[in-house]
Amino acid sequence: MGFARTCSVALVGVEGVVVEVQAGLEPGVAAFTLVGLPDKSLTESKDRVRSAVVNSGGEWPQKKLTVGLSPASVPKGGSGFDLAVACAVLGAAERIDPRVLADIVMIGELGLDGRVRPVRGVLPAVLAAADAGYEQVVVPECAAAEASLVPGVSVLGVRSLRQLVAVLTDEPFPEEDPDEQGRPDPLLAGLRMPGTGAATGIHSVGAAPLDLGHDLADVVGQLSARTAVEVAAAGGHHLFLEGPPGAGKTMLAERLPTVLPRLGRDESLEVTAVHSVAGLLPGGKPLVDAAPYCAPHHSATMQALVGGGQGVARPGAVSLAHRGVLFLDEAPEFSGQALDALRQPLESGHVVIARSAGVVRFPARFLMVLAANPCPCGRLSQRDTLCECPPATIRRYQARLSGPLLDRVDLRVEVEPVTRAELTVRGARGESTRAVADRVRAARERSATRLTGTPWRTNSEVPGRELRSHWQAVPGAMEEAERGLERGVLSARGLDRVLRVAWTVADLSGHDRPDAGDVALALQLRTGVPRGVPMMIGASA
């Protein structure tokens, strides 16, 4: 009886579980049995593996063959086990020394001709292998750069099963067929999932902030909205922009990612892992190091926003915007069920999707920007009476954004229409993205220094209890906000969020602690009610 084993990885969301792939040969009628809780796509690997081995010059064993995937209690799916199954079978048939295979993790799909095709989720799979103590990983050649992001792991990228067998048996390495050079590479098609391109509203993944041509200097006027964008970026606060069409809400939202700092190493790996599972990694740049930006259409379903779907749960827009910006334009047009589903990830920073086969968890710590018109026609304004919407229609439209959802939004700004003077004056440009980004970076460094030794890095992440007990404002500075709590203008959560925003304003202004002016500006940004506070911070003046 022949026996061999090697390893692969089963992905559950963006977390991996190392799976031992065992192959056993015994006398009997030729048959191929795959056990270990495989799904439909994994069950089909029996035919792919058999054809790949034969077309790679190998001999398929004419015995009873059993391939087991252990642990058997973990659901397994996808085609990424093909390479490990093929090598385990060849090891059991003594074509490869079984001892060579035991400590190698193999990830890849096999074509019928023996070529190794890429699969999604290589980075989280290799991270799981490294955490389990494995040091050797075999992946498709075009995914080797992504796998190499994990330190301490030796990565071998192969283009075909024939090449891998040659490496494992110390035979001459077969070169690529010269006739295939210069042709379009169909193997790269496996790196992207259909329907996840730019049309879905996912932009600027991995791009440098100014590479997209989005500069805050293009925004004319809008001092209060620009200030809110700067505060949102500095503290990671959610933002609600309300104003008529053409006032600049979308322009401001698109420029918010450009003032966010570059992602750190750990953050980059988190974001890259999510986009790898979703099949959205940019070509030629395996590491996402800039804040992502996701702007789904208002017809998006709840599953499209928070994740899920039939079969294997997929990351939604909130996870694709992890460590970046989620922009919901025309927010009242989204379904109420989809919007209310955002409340849990806004608080916890992750999404938990429960299915009968198990529970999947995706990271979802994003900065949300909501944009809305003041009424269905968009012409409701204090300056004129062009709006013809009945009062009841306006109330129903504005009530589509529920109170519990808006209570989790720290900043609320009314975006006024741009005046003729602001728009036509020559040379009318605001501060550039680079200038604002420098202040945002300095403010985040102050908050990170203050929060050293804690699990939090931005003011928006600090729980209210910790904020009130360890990082209080100047004595007496919170009196007006506390009176708002007594009058019912603010909830207890709202009071904590005012204090968080006040700390961000203080960080931007260079203050050691929030004073009365910082709290007043935070209260104005929180409630959207003018309080006579200048809408300017530090160098923004």
TrEMBL record:
All residue ranges annotated as the AAA+ ATPase domain in the record: 235-419
Ranges annotated as spanning the membrane: none
Stored InterPro entries: AAA+_ATPase, CHLI-like, Mg_chelat-rel_C, Mg_chelatse_chII-like_cat_dom, P-loop_NTPase, Ribosomal_Su5_D2-typ_SF, Ribsml_uS5_D2-typ_fold_subgr
Region listing for Disordered, in residue ranges: 171-193
Gene Ontology molecular function: any one: ATP binding
Source species, domain of life: Bacteria
PANTHER family in alphabetical order: COMPETENCE PROTEIN COMM, MAGNESIUM-CHELATASE SUBUNIT CHLI
Protein name: AAA+ ATPase domain-containing protein
Species for this entry: Streptomyces avermitilis
